Amino acid sequence: MYASLSQLKSVELRFDRETSKMKMMIANGIEDEEKWLAEGIAGIQHNAFYLHRALDSNNLREALKYSAQLLSELRTSRLSPHKYYELYMRAFDELRRLEMFFKDEDRHGCSVVDLYELVQHAGNILPRLYLLCTVGSVYIKSKEAPAKDVLKDLVEMCRGVQNPIRGLFLRSYLAQVSRDKLPDIGSEYEGEGDTVMDAVEFVLQNFIEMNKLWVRMQHQGPLREKEKLEKERGELRDLVGKNLHVLSQIEGVDLEIYKETVLPRVLEQVVNCKDELAQYYLMDCIIQVFPDEYHLQTLETLLAACPQLQPTGDLKTVLSQLMERLSNYAASSPEVLPEFLHVEAFAKLSNAIGKVVEAQVDMPIVGAISLYVSLLTFTLRVHPDRLDYVDQVLGACVKKLSGKPKLEDSKATKQVVALLSAPLDKYDDIVTALTLSNYPRVMDHLDAGTNKVMAMVIIRSIMKNKTFVSTFDKVEVLFELIKGLIKDLDGISHDELDEEDFNEEQNSVACLMHMLYNEDPEEMLQIIRTVWKHVMVGGPTRLPFTVPPLVFSALKLVRRLQSQDGDIAGEEVPATPRNIFQLLNQIIEALWVVPSPELALRLYLQCAEAANDCDLEPVAYEFFTQAFVLYEEEVADSKAQVTAIHLIIGTLQRMNVFGVENRDTLTHKATGYSAKLLKKPDQCRAVYACSHLFWVDDQDGIKDGERVLLCLKRSLRIANAAQQMANVTRGSSGPVTLFVEILNKYLYFFEKGNPQITSSVIQGLIELIKTEMQSDNTTPDHASDAFFTSTLRYIQFQKQKGGAMGEKYDPIKL
Fold first, then answer.
1. Which pLDDT score is estimated for 733?
2. Whole-angstrom Cα distance, residue 551 to residue 611?
3. Nearest CA to 422 among 385, 457, 459, 386?
4. Which residues, other chains included, contact 56 with Cβ-Cβ below 8 Å and sequence gap of 6+?
């Protein structure tokens, strides 16, 4: 059946009324508590007034009467711990004044023994016990009775108050007034039967009773107020922990007493209370207040208690703090490091963590990993030389993660990244991390995105520390670690990536390749082959980033091997230039499929130049052939063609390995392609650039003046055709820049001594340019004018300089 609209409205109104009622109750509760606190403070102040008057007149009876009435205000059960504390502190201040009165027997005329009996006649138990503790403090100080007897009596009598809040504050008062009167080594209360053990027993007994009261608080109210009770318990925890602090301050509590008495008794109480809040807080107290040396020597006992604690407790934080304290202890006192080995600290911690993780089956994965992070941090600080320990921790983490899907919890992922980053930060050397067999196995459990983040962390570590990876097996492990950057992992594709992020990642991989180096050529070639095996599967988007650095790394190896040509006996794939060039050919071919023809062409020319330096003519010719094939078949964009042809011309000009036939073939192709460029100005510039192929200064035999002149004349014709075409299409012939550029080429070869380039030829070209500039059809251009003026100025300078060059320039008339 469906509820009617009126029924729904009725339910909604009833809910609103209940909510309002609850808010009013909360508000009224806060107001009531303030009112009760004010009444309590007023009661204390009222009785304190008469107490002060009684003290001033040395009237013991009146003083006891008004102090008991004052303390009766602490019997309230209506205040929260926070408000009760305010009331308690008011009463505490008056009790200190009363204690000073009790100490002065001349003022009240009553012996301390009689006073101790007298205060026990107070009507209510709470005021009676506060007065008894106050007099007890004076009693111990008087030394009229053994301190241990008074302390024992007081701690037993305080059992009379079983209300948790009232009992805790009463026992806190007892601890406060007795802490400077404990029989301790060097204390005035030691001796005559009073020993350190008596002090320990008193504090432990008080601690046990306080902890029972504190734990019992959780059962004091209805279930709906559980959260409020937990908050109140949190406010009272320092009262309980104060006892452990007092124990740690007792001089006589040496390692033996701590080991045999204090720690077992405290741990027994911690385990038996079966309360998650108490267990976490008290374990934390033990770790924080007692000396590091004690923890190290009692590690087994302390850790044995951990699996017995409540599985819902925050045990990971406790263990993490313990390991942090021990590692800080080791760092601050290097002389204690042998002691860590002696007590087998790592083995005990590792075993304890394993038991905790195994016992707490419901522990979130982030909790388990954070424990391993803490253990690894401890290991790296205390035993940095024990890589087997580090690998053992990583192995334990792998065991915990195995059988589970890739991590999706961001907190757990963050902890795994911290785990993997710790060895890198410690050793400043990725090579050390590469020897850890479980390192890549941990990384396999990261999701694709985090795997890439971790890979970037590894690369940055290498670059920051300038670490060279020098063996192919370590390179294999390294590239397995960063595989998220060099190929698409499951669950993520390139399309999902931000282009800027992707470029940054690939540039980082490219930088990494320059950190792979070995002096031994054979090992270096193995490294190059290993890298190629990994990057070849990177796909068309990654290869343009990863192939160039790999090619240049191989070319660097070729330069080191320039003197070798033959094969090295006994090697399957010897590291000779010829074999490396074969590998390079395969690598660059991969860019054809991308496609990235312009990049492939540049790399072919780089290889050709390296082959030239190694005096390998067939290899160099093959690389040029590949470059021309790429130019013909793949480079379609006109601008890319211009760039490519100039690169080809520039590289070919520097080659000296070719014989006449091969060189003629290549130069013929270069000049032919230059004349076929789409735009006339581009044709012109490429053709006059080809003139350098026939005149090379530093080599004999390549100084063909006629072919140089042929190229320059051809470029002039093309420039003239460009002018005419501009005249037809735009009605003006355009600037004379091309003519001035060609004039500069003429001057270059004229100075180099080309017999075909004469002063009369240059003179004719100058006149041609002047005529063109004065023509009505020529478009004025300041840049062209300035260029021509500068060229004429240069000629004038050479004429005036004199000497052989001046004589050559002298016939030219400007």
1. 57
2. 13
3. 457
4. none
- 438 φ, ψ (degrees, to nearest 5): -90, -5
CB 262 within 8 A of CB 247: yes
Contact between residue 694 and residue 708 where contact means Cβ atoms under 8 Å apart: yes
Neighbours of 261 (CB within 10 A): 15
Is residue 371 within 8 Å of residue 360, measured between CB atoms?
Answer: no
Tell me the chain's radius of gyration from C-alpha atoms: 46
* Cβ atoms 270, 283 nearer than 8 A: yes
**Is residue 75 a contact partner of residue 25, using CB atoms and an 8 Å limit?**
no
Q: How many Cα atoms within 13 Å fall on the side-chain side of residue 118?
A: 19
Cα–Cα distance between 459 and 505 in angstroms, integer? 10
Is 214 in contact with 278 (CB distance < 8 Å)?
Answer: yes
What are the structure tokens assigned to 670, written together?
């270069």
Alpha helices in 104-225 (DSSP H): 105-108, 112-118, 125-142, 147-157, 164-178, 196-216
Give 723-741 as a 3 state SS string. HHHHHHHHCCCCCCHHHHH
DSSP string, 377-395: HHHHHH-TT-HHHHHHHHH
Q: What percent of the chain has pLDDT over 70?
A: 92
Mean pLDDT of 47-60: 92
In 536-576, alpha helices (H): 543-560
Over residues 640-648, the mean pLDDT reads 95
pLDDT in tens, 765-814: 999 999 888 877 777 788 889 999 999 999 999 999 888 888 889 998 88
Give the number of other CB atoms < 10 A from CB of residue 39. Answer: 14
* Mean pLDDT score, 278-302: 92
Longest dimension (CA), the chain: 139
Nearest 5 degrees, angle CA 604-CA 608-CA 610? 115
Q: Are 400 and 415 in contact (CB under 8 A)?
A: no
Q: What's the gap between Cα 387 and its chain centre? A: 21
- Helical H runs in 594-704? 597-613, 617-633, 638-654, 660-674, 680-690
- The sign of the torsion formed by the CA atoms of 727, 732, 738, 744 equals positive
State how far the Cα of 786 lies from the Cα of 183, in Å rounded to an integer.
Answer: 104
Residue type for position 403:
G
Q: Which residues pair with 703 in a beta bridge?
A: 695
| Alpha-carbon gap, residue 47 to 51, rounded angstroms | 6
469 by DSSP, 3-state: which? strand
Q: HSE-up of 641 (CA within 13 Å, CB side)?
A: 22
Instruction: List, in sequence order, every residue forming a beta bridge with 516; answer none if it has no partner.
Output: 469
Phi/psi at 243 (nearest 5 deg)?
-60, -40
In this structure, the number of other CB atoms found within 10 A of the CB of residue 782 comes to 8
3-state secondary structure of 588: helix
Contact indicator for 207, 240 with CB cutoff of 8 Å: yes
Tokens of 351: 């075993």
* Exposure of 741 in the CB half-sphere (CA atoms within 13 A): 18
Q: Which two tokens stand for residue 252?
A: 């006589």
Of residues 314, 256, 321, 258, the one with CA closest to residue 287: 321
Both tokens of 545, joined, read 């980033």
Q: What does the chain come to in residues?
A: 814
User: Position 430: which residue type?
Assistant: I
Which region among 250-259, 399-408, 490-499, 762-771 has the lowest average model confidence (pLDDT)? 490-499
Alpha carbon distance 252, 542 (integer Å): 70
- CA–CA distance, 382 with 379 (Å, rounded to integer): 5
